[in-house]
Amino acid sequence: MDEELHVLAVDDNLIDLTTAENGLRALEYLGLGDPQQTESLTTNSVMKVNLIITDYCMPGMTGFELLKIVKESSNLKEVPVVILSSENIPTRINKCLASGAQMFMQKPLKLSDVEKLKGHVLNCRS
């Protein structure tokens, strides 16, 4: 039986928004948030994800900070994280990749980027 694939997308831009509007909310969905601030989430709503796609620049917590927390988590460190940014800053890209990001992609995404991402998503399933 095939398992469902769960992707958590994190972006502060409402046009791009899929699931979580910022890094702190993403941590809540992943069960890594402050227990006093996540009272509204039940155990059933904590997400099991196969891939996290996050914007780099967001208020409250950057995608890089989210990446570091995910990679420090014993439950989530194996989950691939893809960072998106509209800015092409080599030091930022290198920092994210060195800290465990699977990919760093520049927005807006091109069809070739989506194809690369699709390959990663399919690899996450196996």
From TrEMBL:
Recite the UniProt keywords alphabetically.
Nucleus, Phosphoprotein, Transcription, Transcription regulation, Two-component regulatory system
* InterPro entries reported in the protein's UniProt record: ARR-like, CheY-like_superfamily, Sig_transdc_resp-reg_receiver
**Which parts of the sequence carry 4-aspartylphosphate?**
55
Q: Where is the Response regulatory domain?
A: 1-122
Record localization = Nucleus
One Pfam family name is Response_reg
What PROSITE patterns does the record point to? RESPONSE_REGULATORY
Name it: Response regulatory domain-containing protein
